[in-house]
Specification:
This protein is α+β, with helices and mostly antiparallel strands. Helix content is 39%, strand content 19%. Strands 1, 8, 9, 10, 11, 17 and 18 form a seven-stranded antiparallel beta sheet that branches. A three-stranded antiparallel beta sheet has the order 2-4-5. A three-stranded antiparallel beta sheet has the order 3-16-12, with no helix packed on it. Helix 8 runs antiparallel to helix 9. It starts with 7 loop residues before the first helix and ends in a 7-residue tail after the last strand.
């Protein structure tokens, strides 16, 4: 298990203190020593040179470094911030925020709200809306005082989403270090969910997990989580999609990554990650959803994967897509395609979206398969009378623990429900609850996924779930 990362700002300060103490020791022990004077001078020169190199070559933050490596455009917000805003951002980076000394534990267990005493949580990646030479309105949004004023009105909402995002970041980064081949899928899901519940400070429907942990393997692209008794083991050659969500007051972070151990799948992972970043870059206020799908497909299908001497084109899975997000509603009505075509509906100001892409070495088309584990109450279903007492009891359990958020059979077990199979089927038959079976391409193929949650703020686009990992 790898150690928790330390904040680079704190490490730099500690290095500086260590060097100063060393210099003082040299001066005290051999004040007249010519060798000591030379050593002191050399240390100062070395430090100055190192600092100069860092200031010239390194991005200002770890996030910007990650974005540069992934080819994602970001903007330097320093030019548009007040001095007070700059100081606040520096303070936030020095606090817990992912494992600084004196902050998060390893494994992570301290709630995010306790790591940030001022309750101001880190921003995600900030991006300007795309512009062209004939339209400067998108760029003007970033400097418009009117748009900034509207932005400030939504600070409470943004802060809740950022809290959920920080819990997601720290959870997934720990799981990426912790998980190993040979573990059971139940073991992996339970460790991830236990960690996320601790970091989000689970509190009924006010804070917690937004949907079950997806850990779909190989040809299964989505909606698989193990039911009780599932003995499936993670293998070295598996391509696994880890998809989980956190929420604060129904403000959902929907974010996913692909986990592999064998480097032979690197091109597949790279294709899907770059396609997702392309979708994020293309998204924006007044952008047509079909334009985003076309951009994603062009990047995705420019890649191919060689396995065992055979070359496979990487295809966008055409019947999977991203989606808009609303409070307590993971799929809020608008879909973001990952292939060309689709609707000309536009994105709008203050909307939230999950930009997710799926790539496959198979047909690029998924179908329902395997035992169902994911369920969700129908958001729009009105009152339906129930005859079975067991159905009434189960619906009360669902309302109390999940509301309109997705859940799985393991979570029903955890909530104390027993012998609920017939009642669950009854609720599904009546349309009160919808079942979401695993979605699979043809057997023998491999699928990958990446996903981020973005906020279309009046002034800018914020990739709120962005982290140092992806």
């Amino acid at each position: 298990m790898a150690a928790v990362k330390t904040d680079p700002n704190i490490e730099e300060n500690e290095d500086e203190n260590d060097e100063n103490r060393e210099i003082e020791d040299i001066e005290g022990d051999a004040v007249n020593s010519e060798a000591a004077k030379k050593k002191k001078k050399k240390k100062k020169k070395k430090k100055t040179g190192t600092d100069d190199a860092l200031s010239e070559k390194q991005p200002e933050t770890n996030e910007e470094k990650s974005h540069a490596e992934n080819g994602v455009e970001s903007i330097d917000t320093n030019e548009n911030e007040t001095e007070g805003d700059k100081k606040k951002r520096r303070r936030n980076r020095k606090k817990g925020g992912g494992g600084s000394k004196g902050g998060q534990t390893n494994p992570p267990s301290i709630p995010i709200v306790d790591l940030f005493p001022d309750q101001v949580f880190p921003e995600g990646q900030i991006m300007q809306y795309a512009t062209n030479k004939d339209d400067r309105s998108a760029k003007d949004r970033f400097t418009s005082e009117e748009k900034r004023a509207i932005d400030r009105l939504n600070n409470d909402i943004y802060n809740e989403v950022r809290l959920a995002a920080e819990a997601h970041r720290q959870t997934r980064q720990y799981i990426q270090r912790w998980v190993k081949p040979g573990m059971t899928m139940i073991e992996i899901c339970e460790e991830l969910e236990k960690t996320a519940r601790s970091l989000i400070a689970e509190n009924g429907l006010k804070a917690g997990l937004a949907f079950p942990t997806g850990c779909s393997r190989n040809h299964c692209a989505a909606h698989y989580t193990p039911n009780a008794g599932d003995a499936t083991v993670l293998e070295y050659d598996d391509v696994t999609k880890i998809d989980f969500g956190t929420h604060i007051n129904g403000r959902i972070i929907d974010c996913a990554f692909t986990l592999t151990f064998n480097p032979k799948y690197d091109k597949l992972v790279e294709a899907v990650r770059e396609a997702t970043n392309t979708g994020i870059k293309a998204a924006g206020i007044d952008v047509q959803l079909c334009e985003i799908g076309a951009a994603i497909q062009e990047v995705m299908e420019s890649y191919e994967l060689e396995l065992d001497g055979k070359t496979y084109p990487i295809k966008s899975i055409r019947n999977l897509n991203g989606h808009s997000i609303a409070p307590y509603r993971i799929h809020a009505g608008k879909t973001v395609p990952i292939v060309k075509g689709g609707e000309a509906t536009v994105m709008e100001e203050n909307e939230f979206y999950a930009i997710e892409t799926f790539g496959s070495t198979g047909r690029g088309l998924v179908h329902d398969d395997m035992d169902c584990s994911h369920y969700m109450k129908n958001f729009e279903m009105s009152y339906v009378p129930l005859r079975l007492q067991s159905s009434k009891v189960l619906l009360n359990t669902i309302n109390k623990n999940f509301g309109t958020l997705a859940f799985c059979k393991r979570w029903l077990d955890r909530a104390g429900a027993t012998k609920y199979q017939m009642a669950l089927k009854d609720l599904c038959d009546k349309g009160i609850v919808d079942a979401y079976p695993p979605l699979c391409d043809i057997k023998g193929c491999y699928t990958a996924q990446f996903e981020h949650t973005i906020m279309l703020r009046p002034t800018c686009k914020e990739v709120v779930s962005r982290g140092d990992d992806y």
